[in-house]
Design a protein that fits this description.
Layout lengths: L1 E7 L12 H10 L10 H8 L11 H14 L4 E6 L4 E4 L9 H14 L1 E4 L2 E7 L10 E9 L4 H7 L2 E5 L8 H6 L4 E3 L8 H12 L4
Parallel strand pairs: 1-2, 1-7, 6-7, 6-8
Antiparallel strand pairs: 2-3, 3-5, 4-5
Helix pairs in contact: 1-2, 3-7
Length: 210
Amino acid sequence: MRLVLLEASLETVPKEIAYHSSVIKASRIRRKRADEMLLEDYLHFRAIRKLERAEKRGRPDIVHRCLLLALDSQVFDEIYIHTITGKLIRVNVETRLPRTYERFRGLMEKLFREKRIESGGKVLLEILNVRLEDVVDNAVLLREKGERKRGVCDMLKNAKTICIGAFPHGDYERETLEALKGAEQLSLGSRNYTSLYALSKVLCCLDPPD
């Protein structure tokens, strides 16, 4: 079973806002170049408002929480992060991810800088040079606008790939939906769910309690 976190709100500070006052302030405090820091809403919210798709950006904590849950579950054989900027990151399921956000932030910044994180002869995290289409075969796409059907748990169990958005607001971009045009689009319910809650509901289907 494969998990793909779609359009994840995980990126370094874009060059078009690198000289914004809030970014410069954070850069001085952290003693890092602006383009080496993760874009974070609570630090750079005024600058983020100047970006396209601003409502979907600056929330790497969503990715952190979802990854911790996915890795702890040991349900998935493969995990990928598809970022808001189109990068595709492979996460080794044996990775012991930092539990604190501050250490996670440092690890992701190192990944964006070096493209690969290795330990003990294993590649734990790696930015791949492949397309989203290459990792989404036989996929179920969870979407608020998806269909509500009976037997959702059975459909999830029979899928090879489960795709969940990892951004705070909005819908998937046209390019993402085009890459997933063959996927079954499903809704888990009538409410708007957070990424973490949606993943939790999926895991309850895939790995029910004894």
